[in-house]
Amino acid sequence: SIDIVVSVYNEEEGLRAFVEKTKEVLQNLNLRSCILLVNDGSSDNSVHIINELAKNSPVVKAIHLSRNFGHEAAMLAGIDHSNADALICLDADMQHPPDEIPAMVKKINEGFDIINMVRNDRDDGGFFRKITSALFYSIINRISPVKLEKNASDFFIISRKVIRILQKEYRERTRFLRGYTQIVGFRKTTLSYYADNRYAGKSKYSLSKLLILTTGAIVSFSKVPLYMGLVLGLLSAIMAIGVLVYSIVIKISGGAPPGYTTLIVFMSFMFAIQFFLIGILGLYIGYIFDENKKRPIYIVDNCIGFDNDKV
Ligand code: UDP
Ligand code: MG
């Protein structure tokens, strides 16, 4: 059996077409399959479309969250509601083509536990997304002990073993699902796919949401930024010794001190570094603070299509 987890946030324009397409692909597979639509607090007509789809088709199930918790939380809600042998996560905008599902299922049947889908190139999102995404992966791969697949997205299939782990472990508040699927181990492989433009509507990831996701990922996957203070502290100590020697020489040789400009530049530079490091400490403290509060990652309002509809 297989579950397809789709998080939906204001996708009224393309949702019906997406579900139709996915149902068609699943029918040809001859497996017990379900499409779990997680409504991540949509404020458009997606809510009614989801309910209608879930009521009219036994294949479609709906999970409504109580508000917008974000894509990461919504995917976890879907994963938590799955009891299938394998599960696929994909986006509702056809950028993760449902046509790839049979190839993914084939790999699972070959005995793999995790198959990450890797974009062979991205035409979507434009130049800015391409550059920022490349920058993010080069930073995190340099400073994190785990190596993340470049161009991986939240498009993957996982076996029951991995589903169970995600249901119990990695229950972090600052979430980065595509990172977890790459560090749990097991038999992993990748398949490549071509990401097209969005089928309908606009991207639901604003720049600020993307920034929160990426800083969260860096903070939760690497401690290197925390140790930057040690390196910079050492460097400035060496610099201070240089300045000290220079000042003494100037003093002894009777020359006038160079004065204002050097001092201001030097101090501004030092202050910038210090505030930057305090900011990094702040990021990590914020992370610890969030984890400690243990607030729910998501809250379910109601579900439709499950055996005993949980309300
Ligand atoms: N999404 C979500 N909650 C959010 C933002 C996005 O569930 O707060 C869903 C959205 O409906 C889509 C998927 O996450 O199914 C990926 O979003 P999008 O396609 O807008 O991101 P992009 O492809 O532009 O990175
Ligand atoms: Mg998209």
Summarize the topology:
Layout: E1 2-8, H1 15-27, E2 33-39, H2 46-56, E3 60-65, H3 71-80, E4 86-91, H4 101-109, E5 114-122, H5 126-143, E6 152-159, H6 160-168, H7 177-183, E7 188-195, H8 207-221, H9 224-252, H10 260-293, E8 300-304
Parallel strand pairs: 1-2, 1-4, 2-3, 5-7
Antiparallel strand pairs: 3-8, 4-6, 5-6
Bound molecules: uridine-5'-diphosphate (UDP) and magnesium ion (MG).
Compact summary:
By secondary structure, the chain is an alpha/beta fold. It is built from 10 helices and 8 strands.
Strand order within the widest sheet? 7-5-6-4-1-2-3-8
Strand content: 15-25%
Distance between the termini: 25 Å
Helix content: 40-55%
**Radius of gyration, rounded?**
25 Å
pLDDT below 50 for ≥5 consecutive residues: which ranges? none
Class by SSE composition: alpha/beta
User: What order do the SSEs take from the amino end to the carboxyl end, as H and E?
Assistant: EHEHEHEHEHEHHEHHHE
**If you average the pLDDT, what whole number results?**
90
> How many individual helices?
10
What ligand molecules are bound, each kind once? uridine-5'-diphosphate, magnesium ion
Key attributes of the depicted protein:
about 300 residues, alpha/beta, elongated, binds uridine-5'-diphosphate, binds magnesium ion
Protein described:
The protein is an alpha/beta fold and 311 residues long. It is 50% helix and 18% strand. The chain has 10 helices and 8 strands. It has an 8-stranded mixed β-sheet with strand order 7-5-6-4-1-2-3-8, with helices on both faces. Strand 2 (33-39), helix 2 and strand 3 (60-65) form a beta-alpha-beta unit. Helix 9 (224-252) packs antiparallel against helix 10 (260-293). The longest helix is centred in the last third of the chain and has 34 residues, at 260-293. It is elongated. The model has no long low-confidence stretch (mean pLDDT 90). The protein binds uridine-5'-diphosphate and magnesium ion. Residues 7-9, 11, 40, 68, 70-71, 74, 91-93, 95, 203-205 line the site of uridine-5'-diphosphate.
